[in-house]
Structure formats: C-alpha cells, structure tokens
Amino acid sequence: MPLFPQAAADHQCFQPVDQRNAECRYVSLDREAMRNALRQQLDDDLLYRMLVDERPHLFAESVVFVAESVIRRQREIIAAIESLIAMPAYQQRVLAYAPETAQFIPKAHGVFFGYDFHLSPKGPQLIEINSNAGGALLNAVLARAQSACFDPAGVNAVQDIEQVFMAMFYDEWQAERGQQPLQSIAIVDEDPPTQFMLPEFLLFKQLFEQNHINTVICDPSELDYRDGALWHGDRPIDLVYNRLTDFGLEAELVKPLREAYLAKAVVVTPHPRAHALYADKRNLVILTDEAALRDMGVAEETRTLLLEGIAHTICVHKEDAEALWAARKQLFFKPAKGYGSKAAYRGDRMTKRVFGEILQGNYVAQTLVKPTEQQLKVENELVDLKLDLRQYVYRGQTQLTSARLYQGQTTNFRTPGSGFASVVVVATEEWNADDADEYDDH
Fold it and tell me: 109-120: buried (b, 16+ CB within 10 Å) or exposed (e) per residue?
C-alpha cells in the first residue's frame, strides 16, 4: 500500500465554483498611498521605519480576494479539528509524546492559534497549526492602511480588532485569576531586539499600556522566580505573552519562567500544553489517519472533514526510506517541533544528503499541496507569487483572516512583492474574475 495518496494537481485561480476549487485573486495597490496610510495610523516614526524601511517585504502591496465558500470551508475544518482536540482519547495520544511541562493543565486556553491553509482543486487544505502564530496585530494595522486606499465591501472588519485581542488576553487572565486586576505583562522572546517580529512586540506593548497594564519586552534570562512570583527586576509579572519557540519551556535559559508557570505563580499564554495539543506536527498524522479516527470514536462527518481538509501526513521512519525517497517529489518534509519553515524541505528539491539527515531526525512527511500562484506587478515588473491563508483563532472562533504572499519554497518576508496581505471575502454567488479586475492598479 502506498504511504500517500496521489498528490493533488496544481491549483489555478478562477476555476468554476461548482468544481469546489479555491478561488483567489491578488490585486496591486498604490504603494505610496498605502505607506502614507501606514504613517498616519502609526504616528510613530520609529515603528514606521521598522515596518517599512527595515522590513520592506513585511507587507505586500496587494490585497487578496477569496471566495466566501473557501473561508466557510476553512472554518468547518477548524471546527472539526477543535472537536477532536477536545476529546480525551485524542489528548491521551498526543500527550504521550509531549514534554513533561505539557502534562500540567492550566485554565488558560492559549492565544493566537494560526491555522495555515493552501488552496487546492478540491478545496482548502490545512498544512499546519501554530500555537503562537505571529502577525495578528500587524495584519490589523495593515488592513486599516490598505482599506484607506482600497475600500470595497467585504474588507475585514478590523476597526475594533485591538479590543477583540484585549478581550482575549483578559479572558486568559480571568480564567486563571478571576476578577483580580491584570497589572503587568511581559512579552517574552529570546533576544527581542534581534527578532524580525519586534515591531509587533512594540505594537502589543502600546496596546497593553493603553489599557493601563505595565508592559515589558524581555529575554527569558531577564526573569527571576522568587518569593512566589515571577519578577522582571523589581516588577512582579502577572502574565507572560509567550513568543518563545522553546514550546515546552525545556531549556535551562527559561528555568525561572518554567518554575513560575508550573507553580501557578504566573499566567503564561500560549503555554506548553497548547503547543502539545495543537501544533506538534506529529498531531497531523493522527488527524489524517482514518483508522485512528475511527478508533477514537470520531463521527463520520467529522472524519470526512478532517481527511478531506488536511494534507495527509505520516511520521518519517528509517524503514520507509526507500518508499519515501521514491515518492519525494509529491512530499513536503517538516520537523515535528518545527516552526517558521525552518529545516523544512520540498521533496522535489531535496538532496540525498538532506534526506539522510531527515531520516535521523524527528520528521513528518506531508502530501505536497502546491500553493496558489499568480503574477503580480511589483515596481513595474511582473513577479510570480505564491499564497497561503491563515486563520487566527481563539477558542475555536476566527478573529482575523490574512494572506501571506511569497516566492521560493516557503514564506520568508524577504523577496519583492511578498508579505502579509489583507483578505477581501467575496460572496460565492457574486464571484467573477472581471469584478476583481475592476480594482487592479488602484
């Protein structure tokens, strides 16, 4: 029996809706108009320079039209996944290979889950879930800036999205502390000044402080656990907005944070259990294993949504080396605990040396779902861009939908035309390529 079903054919935009193809369209925007809108909105020269000058490919100069039926299907897939994750039988399976810290059960749920999709001829396909997905607040800023120079019906309603995000953080806090006042937050990542997403940290700091919460951005080494509290200098920390990629809080560097978290001395979100239940890539193996789903008692309708809506995934084992190498052109290889496309490889571009390293590591292999591709005019030149869609989700509810445009193998925010892009949802019955064309060159 083959390890994988036959890979899906390449997706093309504007195929008929009744064929259930994911429909999309990228539309160029006026570069200067968008930058002026960003400058007015930020009202902060340092942040503006960081976002526009120092990270010129963070924001794509385009919006993306997506048929409403595609977004609805994505949300159905998310709901199916959330229902499975809530099942004790599923949790028992995934926690069996999770770090010890994931066995601790907090009351907080975890902020900013990112469900990432590619669009295929048979509909949207989930390729991964992230437990500390970055970019949500950046996308809120971007959507307002883009809507200032492009204002059709259907642009994401983002005017109050900061309040939605604040309500989420308060919900996390109150789940653990009830009606105690939230007085201090630490935004924690390793060496924050060097992080590509530093501007978003600064935006969150502004947001929290506007809500009268003392906020610090810091490295985990700056934290100390003493006297029953987590401290940053002489300031006790109530809540940690965790942006670390040490998802299990396992390194010695984060020991004070880990100890405070396990002692319930600080609220941490997202936390190790959130990553273990949602974002370990090995979970995708269970989510796409029909026999495992049946064994856990998953309803037929939910099984169908999962099997049709998630790219089929298996664990990489040395004994399957010959079959995996033979099928490599139809596969994408990812480290089980990976993030940000690091050490991930398309099989058709992989060398024997890299394949040997993958066999020695903790990897999964996923059916390659090629992203949507289209040409877009960037600085008067046509470039080929790929697309994925991200749903930012909290407690099963989508807060914001965004797109990422990119060149090359994976999203990298490094190439002309690439970056986050706002999504315009178009009613399926109204979908027409000519309608989208009306907005070209705005």
Answer: bbbbbbbbbbbb
* Span 152-208, pLDDT tens digits: 444 445 568 999 999 999 999 999 999 999 999 999 999 999 999 999 999 999 999
Sequence spans of domains, the chain = 17-311+369-437, 312-368
pTM of the shown model: 0.90
pLDDT tens digit sequence for 323-345: 999 999 999 999 988 776 677 89
How does pLDDT run across 73-88, given as a tens digit for each residue? 999 999 999 999 999 9
Q: How far is Cα 211 from Cα 49, in angstroms, rounded to an integer?
A: 25
- 41 CB contacts (<8 Å, ≥6 apart)? 141, 144, 145, 148
Residues 195, 189: contact at Cβ < 8 Å? yes
- Fold for 312-368, please state it: Dna Ligase; domain 1 (3.30.1490)
